[in-house]
Records
---
Amino acid sequence: MKKVRSQDWFGRKDRDGIIYRGWMKNQGWPHNLFDGRPIIGICNTWSELTPCNAHFRELAEYVKRGVWEAGGFPLEFPVMSLGETQLRPTAMLFRNLASMDVEESIRGNPIDGVVLMMGCDKTTPALMMGAASCDLPTIGLSGGPMLNGKFQGRDIGASNVWQMSEQVRAGNLTASDFAEVENCISRSKGHCMTMGTASTMANMVEALGMSLPGNAAIPAVDARRSTLAQMTGRRIVDMVREDMRVSKILTRTAFENAIFTNAAVGGSTNAVIHSIAIAGRIGVKLNLDDWDALGSRLPCLVNLMPSGKYFMEDFYYAGGLPVVLRELAEAGILHRDALTVNGRSIWDNVKEAACWNRDVIRTFREPLKANAGIAVLRGNLAPEGAVIKPSAASPHLLQHRGRAVVFESITDFHSRINDESLDIDENCVMVLKNCGPKGYPGMAEVGNMPLPPKVLRKGVTDMVRISDARMSGTAYGTVVLHACPEAAAGGPLALVHSGNMISLDVPGRSIQLDVDESTLKQRRDRWTAPTVPERGWVKLYVEHVTQASDGADLDFLVGSSGTPPLPDSH
Ligand code: FES
């Protein structure tokens, strides 16, 4: 094996070598650990403010077992943790910041290989992006989903919160019953257990070949999650010895497999933005049109909320992602020869996967839903694209023409949506502006706007909604998201007025504002850009964030700097 990178620090015989080793020895490490064995950085997003990742210190101990066992030297380090439920204004505002933390922590430290500990929504793309920009041998380990929620004798998950909230507003569920949900929904360690963004991204990591097989679905509290952590620790040591870097795994082929997989699992729209951002960091060309061309006509096989009815725990017991990948491969969709972190092809990993519950994981021939992948819409309302998840939408609304009811901002929306005098009915199209990357800022998950109470009382549960925002992967509805360019960047969404007619045609892939061009030009001439925040991260973010169609990364972070030798400062 060639000399490992960490020997640039610990292999030195001079004064600097004494400093590098000597200060580490205050943790009690014996001298022989600096002998050139692979040093494995365990990149940990543990935080008590990120409940989905709060068990990661414990999980990291199992990774360390595996690293020691294989002859490596594990060193755990913290990076910025992003808790979806707590962090304001939205965790997405900090995904790129966390990715910078990851990238510079890896590059600047004596690390030869990396284990990425990921769970809550944004922690997965942030760590994948940062690691991709360094391109060291890297392996992913997800924290695993929570157990199913249990409420009044039935299983519930995060998607039910959206539904129940609407039932309360419609007067069909008492506030006290809804309050009881709080004690039932998050009853174990782990991330959200629907096919929301966290579960979707865990599936993406496995489909990309960046984790050991089975990583996506093992519940956080299942002992097999600890076993997988130990196996992950073992494997990364050998990956260093084999010089198996991120760039050998994250190829165009791997990203195509991830797009196929997202359709088959009914994954989150957020995967579009994150995958484009990760691809950008490793130098793989990937765009919105790839998502539509490769994924939109594939069926959804996995019967999980919000597209179906089960949860990640059920998915694991049914066989998990390997079953889905086998279905895709046998249907001639999956690229079978894509390399994965265990050194085998993805087909070798899944060719014997068995399904134990065909109601949870359907076959390719008898899927849960046809044509279920994310669709990309274009038109004068979103010339650079917008997305919709048809599997979570109402079929009767996929072709719809309606009168726009416009909300200029999320504040405007909250101040008027419950007003009984609001001029709106179920045939209208709700339009929300200024919630994109620059506008919110951070592109919050507010695109699935709650419906007005007077519509809900009629028993209507879905309306067409359009915005430049994102939507929680746990949410559902006929919701057009990520309209590009966003309103705050002067996109056409900024020019919609209440009363204008909007035509949505998902089969025809179009989203059209029925206003003539000369009127739009007059409105465009009167439009003024919002002011840029004065200082700090948010100023840097707003000035440099790209549009959702380009991954909403910072323009200067796209690409890779690798891990060149760095000067020391002693
Ligand atoms: Fe962390 Fe849902 S809040 S995954």
Note: The mean pLDDT is 96.
---
Amino acid sequence: MDSHILYQFNFKIKRMNLINQTPEVSKTCRFFIRAIKNAAFILLLTILNPLYTNAQDDLIINTQGRKTVSLNGTWHYIIDPYETGFYDYRLRERRKNDGGAYWNKFVPKKKTDWTEHGYQAPYNIQVPGDWNSQDPQFLYYEGTVWYQRNFDTPDVTSGEDVYLYFGAVNYEAHVYLNGKKLGMHKGGFTPFNFKIPAALLKDKDNFLVVRVNNERHQEEIPTVNTDWWNYGGITRDVKLVVVPQEFIQQYHIQLAQDQDIIKSQQLKKYDIKGWVKLNEAVTDAEVSIEIPELKVKRQYKVTGDSLKFEFDVKKISLWSTDNPKLYDITLKLNGNPISDKIGFRKIEVDGEQIKLNGKQIFLRGICIHEEIPQEVRRAHSKKDAAQLFGQVKELHANMVRLAHYPHNEYMPRMADSLGILVWTEIPVYWTIDFGNPEVLKKAQKQLKEMIVRDRNRASVIIWSVGNETPVSETRTQFMSTLVKDAKKLDPTRLVSAALEVGYNEGKNYVDDPLGEYTDIVSLNEYLGWYGGLPDACKTAQWETKYNKPFFISETGAGAKGGFHDEKEMRFSEEYQKWFYEEQIAMFKERFPDNFSGVSPWILADFRSPRRNNPDYQEGWNRKGLIDNKGNKKLAFYVLQQYYKELKEKAGH
Ligand code: GCB
């Protein structure tokens, strides 16, 4: 940040204010000076240093399919609760070359030179990884931590550029390379990247620093209040991405949504539609698309920075839960390839039913937090995804709700290969500042980043724009804007949000006005845990205002693994089992015809600062079907049995 320029500018204005004037003149002058000062300040921020104002919009997708160099591994850190590395003793932002700025490398030249910071062992931290789980001193820490590592520049030809890519940093990241700021990003669960100017890269020992802050704020997404652990740090993969100077940055390829898929099957003519977005405008370039197994080889001329395409194929093995077929696809710009594995399927709502490839499907779901409870840490790897999906499969589930924020990319990718449907959402959770237009922009940005990253994953069928947001006109305006955005960004999927129960004449009545906008009406209900006992399910009546598919996006009860007692005893495994039995009986016997699926809360116990019962919780939300040691609770088997029956009935 060019803070010294701003500082000098402010200083000059202040001096002008000191000139002697009559009161009126000085008032008018002051007004103009203030106006000029404000305008100049904004101009300086936006023109002199546009990177500072916000993150880039140009996310590189599918980094797995590109030439990359991993920057995972051991980094160094400094815990900086007073942000000393960023502000000087007058709390002014440090200047670019300030030796006390933690983004600068301090090399003592003579004996008398001194410093008050440095990056070295034993202050080591693993990336990716939350900081909370890596050292007891970090467990409850919310604040700033500086991360640092060196890297050598990979082999780059003269026609290539290098980008620095982060899978996610929670929550705010400021990135510096060799003393220069590359940019910043806010939002703890979505990726971002910055182009590294070639002149900034040295062959050896590039000095990379990231200032990470995970403090919670009322005007951020999520806000201060959540029922999950605020794990801080560089929580996902970091890599250098080496790309040709002109390259395919994003693309989308899928069955055209407007075709009747049953007819396409009968006529053996499937319509495939898509687009390609380049990093910059080109003239007379060539884009090609190859799907060898489908004998597709198409070439297009492109001028500008994007291209739309559409073609037919005769035969296609549709992706589904029992046939997770992925095709190898290669896109090329002027011969430079990017490859992916993509499944073709159609997801739609037809009246009150959800249909996958034209056939009704019931979603046997389960909610998951991005956490490995046995190690009390965020999940971040392929191995972690395999653990979580292994348990999902054992449950006979065919769907996961990835709560309450976009999970790492290994999750939807693995879901693609296993045939598990995915609901993914942004952390618009509970008490967001709905009246604040800046907050809406932040939510829109996170929604866009989520969709941009995952829109080629066949498994992802639902974009969710939020969870349990309190009904009001302002909130409905806010939330419906997000629904519309999601539909505009991606018309090939369903959009939803987890709503809360309303009541009408003794009935549980789903009439949240947001239901007008969503494709499916999803509801969190805890009948028998937060209200009444589980046998209240025996008489509960349910109705929805909307003739749309009705989905239970949460239901659950707490139990401490290994604690056994009578079923009336709260937090016993027996209570939780009873809860599931009554819920399932209610689903079977008394739920409306538009009931289209359920994703109970939750696969495994997870850390939460809100859960402080000293006997049963100790900082854990105990609604997991699996406890924090990995042991299955009794309720696991109840849900497993229900899903097994549904699976056998459906034939898959
Ligand atoms: C909910 C929330 C979820 C909580 C859960 C609970 O409705 O959506 O984030 O963790 O209830 O356990 O109370």
Note: The two ends are 56 Å apart (CA to CA).
